[in-house]
Design brief:
By secondary structure, this protein is an alpha/beta fold. It has two domains: about 220 residues, Spore Coat Polysaccharide Biosynthesis Protein SpsA, Chain A, CATH 3.90.550; about 210 residues, Hexapeptide repeat proteins (UDP N-Acetylglucosamine Acyltransferase, domain 1). It contains ten helices and 39 strands. The strands form six sheets. The protein has a 16-stranded parallel sheet that branches. A nine-stranded parallel sheet has the order 14-17-20-23-26-28-30-33-36, with no helix packed on it. Helix 2 links the parallel strand 4 and strand 5. The radius of gyration is 31 Å and the shape is elongated. The model has no long low-confidence stretch (mean pLDDT about 95).
Length: about 475
């Protein structure tokens, strides 16, 4: 079988996006647009992958460190798609296989369609094969021109088309397979006598027809696969379409979404069977949710791992943290990066945990901050407890052992350690290590001043 190389065009600025961010890096389903053709193409097992970049090239390269440096091709001057592919000639070198050319802003092209393109190209021994589609509204697409016998004669861009040509509904999808031996000589023959003054890649179809090269085509049945992203409105449409696909997939796999229209799940998120997710929940990045979990709603999860039977109560935020089995979090709680909650932990309302490990069956039920802490099992953190972990220069850690009872309104000033089975009295400020099994107190003596209220009111002119 002939070797396969892939060229992905991702050099455009995307002026209609009105953004300083390169179009290839705009997010769809939580991932850059460029990641979609990269993933679809990778499934074909290519020998070489080349990505043509231009505007914001350094940012694009940084976002995809998995691409080897020889795979990056620079198009310094934006002179059209034909010129972009021609820029890859030196990188392609003496490669003599088939080259699959994709657009970096067409995210819905499936691996199945790409495989069919390759089969059509190779079974017909073609020099060039292009994908076409018939659309009810072909606006914005180049039209496919055919001769009286139905053979493809060329492609005309909409801005250069005549009125009659604009009535054609068969369009160029922007997907090609070409033999390397045909492609680059054909690109050398392109002109730029058009409305944009650019070298159009679709003009290689005309060159192939004129040279009577072996020219083939494949019809893409699903119009969605053909859609590119040119502006924010199109990106929003694709986001909604992708979200519907993702939500439908998880419901088919045994997940209950109480309000699918208002549930947002990124493409790389994973959810276990019999999990129930309430409205306005966001599962972002590489979040993994186990089986039989319950997410009440208005949850915002980013790169989180939830084990089985976790309950997230209403309105919680979790970032880059790990939660083990049968944990309860919330409502109105915040788990920040580096947090690990062991089995059966309860984190209650208005509790924040950051860069801390909380041991099995420990509870922090309300109004507390636990930061940079190692917290043992079967302990209880009273309301209003704070681990004071920052002195203005350095983050320091607190260690709390097993079966510790921390009274309400306690401050633990790091670095400090509390031994197993210790009790800390309410209202204490702990600045020294607490031995295991001891009671720690830090309180000013309580005073009573008889008659003070009457004297105070008299001084201020307030008599009963």
């Amino acid at each position: 079988m002939r070797a396969l190389g892939i060229i992905i065009l991702a050099a455009g600025r995307g002026r209609r996006m009105r953004s300083s961010t390169p179009k290839a890096l705009h997010l769809l389903g939580g991932k850059p647009l460029l990641s979609y053709p990269l993933r679809a193409g990778a499934g074909l097992g290519p020998e070489k992958v080349f990505v043509v970049v231009g505007h914001g090239a350094d940012r694009v390269r940084k976002a995809f460190p998995e691409i080897d440096p020889p795979g990056w091709v620079m198009q310094r001057d934006q002179r059209g798609t034909g010129h972009a592919v021609l820029c890859a000639r030196q990188a392609v070198g003496d490669f003599r296989g088939d080259l699959l050319i994709l657009s970096g802003d067409v995210p819905f092209l499936s691996q199945r369609s790409l495989s069919e393109m390759l089969r059509a190209h190779r079974s017909g021994a073609h020099d060039l094969t292009l994908a076409t589609a018939t659309l009810a509204d072909p606006s914005g697409y180049g039209r496919v021109l055919r001769d009286p016998d139905g053979a493809i004669a060329g492609v005309v861009e909409e801005r250069d088309a005549t009125g009659a040509e604009r009535e054609i509904r068969e369009v160029n999808v922007g997907l090609y397979v070409a033999s390397a031996g045909f492609l680059f000589p054909a690109l050398e023959e392109l002109g730029n006598d058009n409305d944009q003054g650019e070298y159009y890649l679709p003009d290689t179809v005309r060159v192939a027809a004129e040279k009577q090269a072996r020219l083939g085509s494949l019809t893409i049945d699903d119009p969605r696969e053909c859609r590119g992203v040119n502006n924010r409105e199109e990106l929003a449409w694709m986001e909604k379409a992708l979200q519907q696909d993702i939500n439908r997939k998880w419901m088919e796999r045994g997940v209950t979404l109480e309000d699918p229209e208002n549930t947002y799940i990124d493409a790389d998120a994973v959810i276990g069977e019999d999990t129930v997710i309430g409205p306005n929940s966001h599962l972002l990045g590489r979040t993994v949710v186990g089986a039989r979990c319950r997410i009440d709603g208005s949850a915002y999860l980013t790169n989180v791992r939830l084990a089985d039977e976790v309950h997230l109560r209403f309105s919680v935020v979790l970032d880059d943290c790990e939660v083990e089995e049968r944990v309860s979090v919330g409502p109105f709680a915040h788990l920040r990066p580096g947090t690990v909650l062991k089995r059966n932990v309860h984190i209650g309302n208005f509790v924040e945990v950051k860069n801390s490990s909380v041991g099995e069956s420990t509870k922090a039920s309300h109004l507390s901050y636990i930061g940079d802490t190692e917290l043992g099992r079967d302990s209880n953190i009273g309301a209003g407890t704070i681990t004071c972990n920052y002195d203005g220069f350095t983050k320091r850690r607190t260690t709390i052992g097993d079966r510790v009872q921390v009274g309400s309104d306690t401050q633990l000033v790091a670095p400090v350690a509390v031994g197993d089975d210790a009790y800390i009295g309410a209202g204490s400020t702990i600045t020294r290590d607490v031995p295991a099994g001891s009671l720690a107190l830090s309180r000013a003596p309580q005073e009573h001043r008889e008659g003070w209220v009457a004297r105070f009111r008299a001084r201020n002119g307030k008599q009963e």
